[in-house]
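User: Show me sequence and structure for the first protein, then do the same for the second.

Assistant: Starting with the first protein.
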Amino acid sequence: MTKLIFMGTPDFSATVLKGLLDDANYDVLAVVTQPDRAVGRKKEIKMTPVKEVALEHNLPVYQPEKMSGSDEMAELMTLGADGIVTAAFGQFLPTKLLDSVDFAVNVHASLLPKYRGGAPIHYAIINGDKEAGVTIMEMVKKMDAGDMIAKASTPITDDDNVGTMFEKLAVIGRDLLLKTLPDYIAGNIKPEPQDESQATFSPNITPEEERIDWNKSARDVFNHIRGLYPWPVAHTLLDGKRFKIYEASLVEGQGKPGQIIEKGKKSLVVATGDGAISLKTVQPAGKPRMSIVDFLNGVGRKLEVGDLIGE
């Protein structure tokens, strides 16, 4: 039985961890995840999804703010693990730690060398990619730059968003890892170096990147909205205040970018630089998330065709 240390944080990682725990070939000695954080308006302290799974299985949990030089890392190195498996952990692993095990592999949610970094699924959707995927790669002390062990892909449809793609890719990543890890450990797979000339990057989304640019095409705005849903959520301005748009759809129409070109009891259509989108789910400043119907029956009643948002 191969003894592992698992490192990960979000639901994507939790799916991979569950797969390892259900496989009799592996003994997960410990789990490493990011520290508990305050979330939401009430700033409630919340455990990571990976920590929740680990505690359900009575596994030791380590949560260093920074792995390098930490007491947690020193203790992990004494456990006698054969290897490390990471999936969306969120920290670099020191060379000293990588050298302490026979192997260290990462489950990364992109088709490397495309989209190295922390937000590969967001960028794939925002950029209008037709497919996304998962790469199993060797860990090195450089962001997502290790040799590739295996890849698998899946289409991105107009019905997809970051949430749906995370769910799909988590299952794909779990299955791909469990399929290839035994052969990799046995030395039957020769990892393939990445082509550095083809590398692109997907850093975490900044607050400035969340804002919608209405001068772009309807397709680009549509991709932007679903590429930030369900987190961190795209926004624009309404009466000078942040107005979040969770969901929208592509529709026919032309007008000045950001202009309301159609308003009905159940619809609000906004023009872009080329085409238009119909808003579906929104959140005005100081209000909860709501359907466009509820918005139009409330604070949105004052809006008229010809009004501009985003200014």
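Switching to the second protein now.
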Amino acid sequence: MTEKCLILDNGSHTVKCGWRSDKSPVNLYNWIMRPKDRRRQFVGTQIDGCQDMSNIHITSPFQKGYLLNWTAQKTVWDSIFSDPLKVSPGETHLIVTEPPLNFTSIQEAWDEVMFEEYGFRSLFRCSASTLTAFHYKQTHTDSQCCLIVDAGHAFTHIIPYHNGKQITAGTKRINVGGKHMCNLLKELISYRQLNLLEETYACNLIKEDVCFVSTSFCEEMELAKKKDPSVLCEYVLPDFVNIHRGYVKLPDVTDDPDEAKKPEPNKEQMIRLSLERFTVPEILFNPSDIGIDTMGLTEAIVYAIKQCPTNMQPHLYNNIVIIGGSSKFQNFKERILKDVRSCAPDEFNINVYRPEDPIVEAWKGGQLLGGWPGYQNIRVTKSEYEECGPSVCAKKLFDSIPVGVNNT
């Protein structure tokens, strides 16, 4: 009988959860959302039933990238486990992700909740970067090294791996993520056009729809000054009556002015965006723009590689893997390739790989791990936890999946 294995990629923004046999995971916000009247809360798949997202109050289980509100998190998990997936923990093996460099106290709470409150048969806990590195190793068998760039919601991590083992000396964190970009966009729009400081949900959609990474910042600024159509765009905001999701308003290209469709007055509320579109993602490459004293993404990638053994460095430059929601920005891959090429030694090849869907790449790594022959040796079973306590988790669940050259 095939074991039931559940993969739970528990991000601070979205939860990607599904069985190992599924083609794709259930992808839901890791939030509890309450409308203005606060009379009802929406969790998991219930969020689709919330008709008015204006001024909605969002409760996240995560604070500064770490899981601290366990009551809220269990509410989200209960919703996912009961409705879309119908999980029976006592019959299920669990692979779950946690933030890199997680605190020991939080890890112990993870193990306690999963074993004592839910009662899963076994547990393997690691970072999304580790599962991505495992997936990359299994699908690129000639590559023993890779550098994972995880551009997440709260942080951006740069982590080098060798045969599935994390190289701690080269691990680097940038305290900038999708949340900081959303907050900056809210401030820019609110200061210049319309007060959207309480519209986190809407601003996050605006960011995803219109923002892009600049490959030539000075040239983009000149285009913005000239109001060039390649930079300038109009965005129609949702009113949650006739328009439930905002969208980019396309320019009218009709030659005949009599046939041009005229917008109906008071039907659409629009904002105009130009330089905000590329200055917001730019803070990932230059955090000092918003007063964060840390190195930018390109500098951090080069720094992380230089902390690794000399013989690994050319292989790491040649196997840069980018994942996370922010990696979906237009020109994100090209910007990293261009900037790293200018900083790396001339004799090294630079290759940046972005999966087809960088958001679910870690979940796919969990799929492969669930069927890997060595998986049974690295997971912690419930009987082991009951016999040895949390110490067995601390001993076995280190943030690596050691794999041999021959993937055995």
